[in-house]
Design a protein that fits this description.
The structure is a single chain. With 553 residues, the protein is an alpha+beta fold. The protein has a domain of 269 residues: Histidine kinase-like ATPase, C-terminal domain (Heat Shock Protein 90, 2-Layer Sandwich). 57% of the residues lie in helices and 7% in strands. It is built from 13 helices and 8 strands. The strands form 2 sheets. It has a 5-stranded mixed sheet. Strand 4 and strand 5 form a beta hairpin. It is rod-shaped and about 205 Å long. Its EC number is 2.7.13.3.
Amino acid sequence: MAAAAAAGAAVAVAPDGARTWSLAAMLGAWLCLAVAVVTGTLAVRRARRAGARQGDDVAQARSQAAQLAAECAHLVSVTLPAVAKRLRDGTSAEDALAHITHPSDPQLRRLAHTFATEIEESVRLAVAYDTERRQAADELERTSAELKRLGDELLPAAVSRLREGQSADTVLGELDWPRTPALGAPAESFVRELARSERRAAAAQAASAKALSRVQAKAVSMLADLREMQDRHGEEVFGDLLKLDHSTSQLGLLTDRLALLMGGRSSRAWNKPIVMESILRGAVGRIAAYQRVRLHCSTGAAVTGFAAEGVMHLLAELMDNAANFSPPIDEVNVYVEERSAGIVVTIEDSGLKMPAAAMRRAEESVAGRMTDLASLQGTRLGLAVVGRLAVKYGISVNYRPSSRGGTGVVVLLPRQLLAQQREPAPAGTARRPAAVPAPAPAAAPAPPAPAPPAPAEPVAPRALPARAEAPAAHPPADSTPGGLPVRNPGRTMAQAEREREQRRGQDGTGDGTARPERPAVRDAGSRFGAFHRARRSGTTAPDGGPEPGPAAP
């Protein structure tokens, strides 16, 4: 209104010439103002309507957001855990989704469907993996049990059977081997390789035993020839012959030791019982340090022929071991006494006491538990032989501390190895071997010689002990139709020569002249000769050979 009044006043005061123009301008201004007002009013109204619509949209969006939040919370807290539980229980995804309230939002429905599908696949894989794990665990348990049975039962049994001589096919067929290829194939390869190794070892042992048997036969033949030379030659070579005899006896002990370890047998066998005193002297005669051995025998019992050589070898090994591991100036004492359980032989030395480990190995050796030749040391073969002989004849061998400061060995010969004495020895006479008959009269008795010392006396320091040997008598050799002589098996050249001389003497072909008197020799030779003449005249066995195990001079 104020603007209209101002416009009217302006037209009134305007000059007449410009009053028309002023009025027109005023009307135009009013028209523009009216248009502006109308336009603004319309714009305000439109803005108000748009704001109202946007408020409704915001409210609707807020309502939808609240509903979506509620559905998400329900989906996360209720729907998805329920679906997962049903799927873990084995329900399929479709069945699990059919029992839930689906959200109104399609994205949430798609999310629930995807979740159910993935969980179903995960559960399926988990079940498959668990099944495989259980199968693998069961297979591992079975394999472990088979492996334990393979190591504890099957392989030791296979090794034992293969060493007894069974073939690889027999062992593989008789034993229940593992079904698992990872164990069965290596086990079969092991058995076949071990069988080949055992065959090679058996062949090597057989070849060694065969070669040693030839050496044994040569040693026995040399001993027989030396004994014949001792009978034929005079005093000047008698001491040397005894030394050769003793060296050959040691060689025989060594070859017998190796032969027994190789599965062979001793070089000599006896067909009649041998008294214990002769057994002891025969054992002493086979070791190098015989001069340090002191025998104390208080029994006249005899060992049966089949076990005499084994007992003699066993005692020789123990005496040799005691002499080797004691000071060279100390004595080795051997005590023999008869008990109700059998013959007890105690061997004591004065050496250092054996350490616990060495004592344990020695006890295992003499008990026969060390049968693997690969585990034996080259210088410890004697005790392994003792163990084999002890197991073979049922002899008990035990170690204990010696009262002399060293180590003692107690050997128990059971009653089944002893021979029954049919006739007791006459009172006041010297003991003779129980199984040897009264000596036959000699053809040409030599001058009497001093009797040998009692068994408990030490072996003479200069004289070598004679071996315990009782060669069987051989009948005269037969002849072929062409007149050629035939040698009996086992007879040596010396025995054949002696029989020829005996037959020549019976036929009257001998010259009958006495042997020319030999020049005087040193004192040792005289002593050997005196013993030699006494042995020939007073200790000749019925078969023409010396009695087993003569006493040392």
